[in-house]
Amino acid sequence: MKRSFMRSFIRRYKFVLLFWACLFLAAAIMLSRHNGSMPRNSVTNSSGTDSATRSNAKAPPKMEPLPAPSQSDKAAEEADVANAITSADVHYLASRNLLIPVQGVAASQLRDTFNQARSEARRHDAIDISAPQGTPVLAASDGSVIKLFQSDKGGVTLYELDPSSRYVYYYAHLMRYADGIAEGTQLRRGDVIAYVGDTGNAGAGNYHLHFAISKPISPHGWSGGNPINPYPLLMRK
């Protein structure tokens, strides 16, 4: 009787022990899988996005506000607007009845070279009037000699200020000035002011007058103004 009872107890004990061992092993396997799929210090939200990955993503660069324009920038912009070429400028110059500034040259001989390209990515901003060496150069309008200048590109040059003080007439590649011409000399339309040459970068033997009109950017300025095409103004003759 006792032996039968002991055998039954051992069989039951082995079954319970085996059950708990299997349960422990299953729990260990599930815990191992769970730890392998979830890295430490990482939390996954309901949409499946890893918060650790999100925190390591680069934030978009901050857009810095543009600096406010300085007083000098504002002044420059206002000057550009004030000195822009308008129809009023062209109308005024047309009313001046400008003279073709080379003696003996007719309007039919003129060529519009204002927009032609020049070296160093420059635009011509003038017209070239061909004539034999020494041909008299004439004042295109009443005015005054504001500057006599020796230029690398223009050679012997003369700048004439219009009576309105708003426009400058530019004569370049001159052979020489006429007698009596000096800075401050008052000019009358048609006065001989110089003679056609090939000085500066005109090219040896390429005798012509480089004639330009500009609207100075600064008061009493004589160079670097906004250019105005002389061709249509001279073709009215």
Q: Could you walk me through the main structural features you see in this protein, from its secondary elements to its overall organization?
A:
With 237 residues, the chain is an alpha+beta fold. The protein has a domain at 86-234: Distorted Sandwich (Glucose Permease (Domain IIA)), CATH 2.70.70. Helices cover 29% and strands 23% of the residues. It is built from 5 helices and 11 strands. The chain has helices at residues 2-37, 51-56, 71-83, 87-95, 231-234, and strands at residues 117-118, 122-123, 127-130, 136-138, 143-151, 155-161, 168-177, 186-187, 192-196, 208-215, 226-228. The strands form 2 sheets. Strands 3, 4, 5, 6, 7, 8, 9, 10 and 11 form a 9-stranded antiparallel β-sheet that branches. Strands 1-2 form a two-stranded antiparallel ribbon. A hairpin with a 6-residue loop joins strand 6 (155-161) and strand 7. The radius of gyration is 45 Å and the shape is rod-shaped. The model is unreliable at 38-49 (pLDDT under 50).
Summarize the structure.
This protein has 237 residues and is of the alpha+beta class. The chain contains five helices and eleven strands.
Provide tags for this entry:
single chain, alpha+beta, Glucose Permease (Domain IIA), nine-stranded antiparallel sheet, two-stranded antiparallel ribbon
